[in-house]
Amino acid sequence: MAEETHLTVNIVTPDGLVYNHHATMVIVRSIDGDLGIMANHEPIVTPLQIGEVHVRRIDNPGHEDLIAVNGGFMEMSDNVASIVADSAERERDIDLSRAEAARQRAQQHLQEAQAQHDTDEAQRAQVALQRAINRIHVKTGK
């Protein structure tokens, strides 16, 4: 029996399917660091951090799709990498001006929470800031 040369990458959020393509490799940011998955990888389940997902599609070998993923987990089994995320946005769908505005709001909220010594609000603002920065990085490639 021949080994498969590609895997399927699915990204699902509470709003539905965000991404579904065949790939040679997917790279995710797990809580233990970056993880690259190729076809025929052993089954694995891993929680994800806020970060970029890189997908090397089989139909365009020199190109990587970038998706901003905000938490969740990935399961790899039978050459299907399924990512279930709180939210996810493809690079082409990110509105940079909205992401920049969200970053500014989060920074302001974080400063206010820190000034009031409100650790819960500061933590929420920090997560919002990470999400906005992640979206900006995916959109700009920086």
From TrEMBL:
<dbReference type="InterPro" id="IPR036771">
    <property type="entry name" value="ATPsynth_dsu/esu_N"/>
</dbReference>
<keyword id="KW-0066">ATP synthesis</keyword>
<dbReference type="InterPro" id="IPR001469">
    <property type="entry name" value="ATP_synth_F1_dsu/esu"/>
</dbReference>
<keyword id="KW-1003">Cell membrane</keyword>
<dbReference type="Pfam" id="PF02823">
    <property type="entry name" value="ATP-synt_DE_N"/>
</dbReference>
<comment type="subunit">
    <text>F-type ATPases have 2 components, CF(1) - the catalytic core - and CF(0) - the membrane proton channel. CF(1) has five subunits: alpha(3), beta(3), gamma(1), delta(1), epsilon(1). CF(0) has three main subunits: a, b and c.</text>
</comment>
<comment type="function">
    <text>Produces ATP from ADP in the presence of a proton gradient across the membrane.</text>
</comment>
<keyword id="KW-0175">Coiled coil</keyword>
<keyword id="KW-0813">Transport</keyword>
<dbReference type="GO" id="GO:0045259">
    <property type="term" value="C:proton-transporting ATP synthase complex"/>
</dbReference>
<feature type="domain" description="ATP synthase F1 complex delta/epsilon subunit N-terminal">
    <location>
        <begin position="7"/>
        <end position="88"/>
    </location>
</feature>
<comment type="similarity">
    <text>Belongs to the ATPase epsilon chain family.</text>
</comment>
<keyword id="KW-0375">Hydrogen ion transport</keyword>
<dbReference type="InterPro" id="IPR020546">
    <property type="entry name" value="ATP_synth_F1_dsu/esu_N"/>
</dbReference>
<keyword id="KW-0139">CF(1)</keyword>
<dbReference type="InterPro" id="IPR036794">
    <property type="entry name" value="ATP_F1_dsu/esu_C_sf"/>
</dbReference>
<feature type="coiled-coil region">
    <location>
        <begin position="96"/>
        <end position="123"/>
    </location>
</feature>
<dbReference type="InterPro" id="IPR020547">
    <property type="entry name" value="ATP_synth_F1_esu_C"/>
</dbReference>
<dbReference type="Pfam" id="PF00401">
    <property type="entry name" value="ATP-synt_DE"/>
</dbReference>
<feature type="domain" description="ATP synthase epsilon subunit C-terminal">
    <location>
        <begin position="93"/>
        <end position="138"/>
    </location>
</feature>
<protein>
    <recommendedName>
        <fullName>ATP synthase epsilon chain</fullName>
    </recommendedName>
</protein>
<keyword id="KW-0472">Membrane</keyword>
<dbReference type="GO" id="GO:0005524">
    <property type="term" value="F:ATP binding"/>
</dbReference>
<dbReference type="GO" id="GO:0005886">
    <property type="term" value="C:plasma membrane"/>
</dbReference>
<keyword id="KW-0406">Ion transport</keyword>
<dbReference type="GO" id="GO:0046933">
    <property type="term" value="F:proton-transporting ATP synthase activity, rotational mechanism"/>
</dbReference>
